[in-house]
User: Fold this.
Amino acid sequence: MLYGLAKTIFFLIIFYYLFKFIGRLLLPFIMKKGVERMQQQQQRAASNYQQQARQQEGKVTINRDAPKKSSGIVGDNEGEYVDYEEVK
Assistant:
């Protein structure tokens, strides 16, 4: 029993240091790729915004969304009528 416990603790320590070592090697690479992806998304968003801003003044464009189906849920601006009596 003591041998199994010592073996388990040994493997946990080995896996901890192995994970820590691999993390130090791979984490900067993963973070760099994530930052590059975010920069590309920001550049695309900025170029889309600039294209929209360059439209001719007075030109009207209508973007229609698909009609929403009513789900029977009461909206935020709507509420129920509550009947009450004023007590004097």
Remarks:
- The radius of gyration is 30 Å.
- The CA atoms of residues 11 and 39 lie 41 Å apart.
- The mean pLDDT is 83.
- Residues 1-52 form one domain.
